[in-house]
Each structure stands twice: as structure tokens, then as C-alpha cells.
Amino acid sequence: MSLKLGDVFPNLSVDTTAGKLQLHDFFGNSWGILFSHPRDYTPVCTTELGRAAQLTPEFEKRGVKMIALSCDSVEDHHGWTKDIESYNTVKVTYPIIADSDRSIAKQLGMLDPDEKDPTGMPLTCRAVFIVGPDKKVKLSILYPATTGRNFNELLRVIDSLQLTATKKVATPVDWKDGDKCMVVPSLSNEDASKLFPKGFETKNVPSGKSYIRLTPHPK
């Protein structure tokens, strides 16, 4: 199975460090993020889960429920969590899903064929799924096991997703919350003037087309 943008995220029943959970119930009416990791007791994963824990208040501020996944047992997760907390000087409060048989990783298309455990089983890649309150996939990213993620970038993406879900804007390259946004091309100048009381600026380009329109962040 390969999830596409707009697909409903599966309502998986999962065993976690917080007990058995049903994912749709866990996310509730909130935004959600699921991030997977190759294996417990590995160096890059330890830094990633630690950074996620450090940024938990930022995810909570955005109304985002966090849950991680690694292809080991709940017992291993509990033991590894102590290392994560010690190394990163932080408390891990989000649940970690157990997926020893890789069934969830297979279902969500998260296996890395180039990284295997000592028995030859492929490990989980570094996947990210951001799920909206409607339980649909809003973003998915796959990283190889050898490349750690930038969790500040995930927060930036969430800011963009949440803004553009309710406003007729798009966010340009390297955009950060508070920066100017772009008026979506489908919106006429007349409608844009009504929607954006602070106005918008149309940039002149050699083609003469008026498709680059910047407006202050619509708070």
C-alpha cells in the first residue's frame, strides 16, 4: 500500500508505550504526525526522538498529536526511551508504536530495502505522515535510514499546511510563519481585494503575466 496525498490515513490498531491505541481515536479532531524510525538503540534515531521530545511544546501549540514508530517491541521502546532522555536531557511524552513484524511498515510503504537487521529483515525508513483533522494525508516524506530529519522543517511545513487549509494563499520557498504569502492563482484580483484587506502587491515579470501576487501574512 502506498498512501497518496488526500488518502484517508488507515485507522490502525497499534501497540505502543502508552498501551493499545486506535490511531483515529488518538488523533481525534486534531492534526497528527506519525514519524517512523529504523530501529531502537541506534544513534541517529536517538537524536531524532530526542529532538522531537524537545519540540513537543511547539507541536502542542499547533494542536498536533505526535506518535512515533520503530520496528521493535514495546519492551525495547521503554528501555531505549531511557537512553533518549539521558542523551538529550529531555522527557519523552509521546507514544512509540511497536512494529516488530513490520506489518505496519509494509502497509504504509515504509520499508527501506537497503537497510536490514542481522536476520536480513528490512528496517523501517524515516517516514513522516502529517494527517489533518479530517484524517486525510496532508504530507508524506521518506528519508533513508542514514539521513536524520530536520524537525524545525516539519514545524514550518505544519504552519504552512494549517494556514493554507483556511486561507486562499500559498507559501513560497523558504517561507516562515509571519512572512508574506502568495495569493493563489485561481483567485481574481477583485476577490483578492475583498479577502485581503491589507492588499496585495503584483510583481512585474518579463512575460507580462500577473501571477506573482504577494500579500502580508493573513493572521
TrEMBL record:
One of its GO terms (biological process) is cell redox homeostasis. Keywords: Antioxidant, Oxidoreductase, Peroxidase, Redox-active center. The active site is at 45 (cysteine sulfenic acid (-soh) intermediate). It comes from the Eukaryota. Pfam families: 1-cysPrx_C, AhpC-TSA. InterPro entries: AhpC/TSA (IPR000866), Peroxiredoxin_AhpC-typ (IPR024706), Peroxiredoxin_C (IPR019479), PRX_1cys (IPR045020), Thioredoxin-like_sf (IPR036249), Thioredoxin_domain (IPR013766). Residues 3-163 form the Thioredoxin domain. PROSITE patterns: THIOREDOXIN_2. GO terms for molecular function: peroxiredoxin activity. SUPFAM superfamilies: Thioredoxin-like. One of its GO terms (cellular component) is cytosol. Belongs to the peroxiredoxin family. Prx6 subfamily. Thiol-specific peroxidase that catalyzes the reduction of hydrogen peroxide and organic hydroperoxides to water and alcohols, respectively. This is Thioredoxin domain-containing protein.
